[in-house]
Amino acid sequence: MGLTYGILGAAMAALFAGIGSAIGIGYAARVANGVLAEDPDKFGSLFILVVLPGTQGFYGFLGAFLIILQLGLLGDTPKIPTTWQGLQILFAALPVAFTGLLSAIHQGKVCASGVEMAAKRPQDSTKAVIYGAMVETYAVLGLLVTIFLLQGIKL
Asked: Distance (Å, rounded) from C-alpha 135 to C-alpha 17?
């Protein structure tokens, strides 16, 4: 049962953070496509604002990968954690899963507004990236908490 909980934790980390990134990128990309329909030359200045919410998906993948390594699933014989250890791994995955989900969605909204600003004031697009990066901070903290918690689980 412990292995099942551990695998569930890895799946949740990747799944929720990935869903958040897809939604966040979707928000920013819809607005950017509207801007690009009017002025295709703005692609370079809008690109970073569109892809910025995608980083949370990578954080979720990293959290899942660390769990997979800890469980020994890439080797010949996986480690079989106790039920309690499996639950610990599951709970350790939650910070990156949920901060990834929620921060990517909100970052996508911030970046979509930034795209609108950059459309009118291209020289200020860096300011919009900074606001988007402020939201990113919480996804990074969620990943760090997951890493720290996983370090405390001995199999």
From this structure: 14
